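tool_call predict_complex ligand=D-malate
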Amino acid sequence: MKRWKLVVAVACAWSAAAWGQGYPNRTVTLVVPFAAGGPTDVVARTLGASMSKTLGQTVVIENKTGAGGTVAANMVAKANPDGYTIFIHHNGMATATALYRKLPFNPLTDFEYIGQVADVPMTMLARKDLPPDNLRDFMAYVRNNKEKINLANAGLGAVSHLCGMLFQQALGVELTTVPFQGTGPAMTALLGGQVDVLCDQTTQTIPHIKAQKVKFYGVTTKQRIAALPDAPTLDEQGLKGFEVVVWHGMYAPKGTPREAIDKVNAALRAALKDPVVASRFADLGAQIVPESKQSPAGLRDWLAAEIDKWGPVIRKAGTFAD
Ligand code: MLT
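tool_result ok
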């Protein structure tokens, strides 16, 4: 081997080894595709604080909002794959493939998978002074007042949009929807009475439900949930088969070195075992996924199955975002 080739080969081997041992040697950015203060942000900040301890570097949150999470996903897909940009997203990563005919990234090929995080139920809410007190009366009220009712969501592709879309389908109505950059600001509008209805995640809604600042009509899971044990499901109150559960995955840009993925995955797994995280998630109704799902393969297989599941539902609704 010529001398310069040997020098280059040795230098490359040395820098790869040094990179692997040194990672992370600066702040890691966790991109959140919705507004600060909302449900995805709450999950990300709870995890980020714990992951910082394991990684030995601060995990900072960057809220990059827009287009139901696709603005952030596209930015991360094109980010430097150096291990210093990671991403958390929910069901929107799967539903975007059907909602957007010109999606500028491919969820299945443009990312490295880190692992799944937690599953979160949703809750059907209305502003506090909306007259109905239970789901049956609420459904009748919505049918009778469909021209007047505003339904808030976090943009096309957000889970609040998906939940609202399924609710309208179930009732056979079309309401005026009001998109926000996340359900953080949508909740502020609901509390202020500027919008009428919001389907949102327990990670944001439980404190408002407990403080009775909103009308609460039930949870979107098949079974009742431990965090709100007295709350009926929508299914048991007559909306048969109505189920929306929000799942979360952590990703990095395609080409991120394996060593970084392994270290971030180890930090994620440690966070999901951290009693501080476990107790906060339990209070907010977020159920940590089993260990098998906390792996890159667990997330990849789940995402592929979710794309197959939601594609036909969205196409049937005839809803497109572009
Ligand atoms: C958020 O964090 O604002 C939500 O996850 C938005 C949504 O998908 O409804």
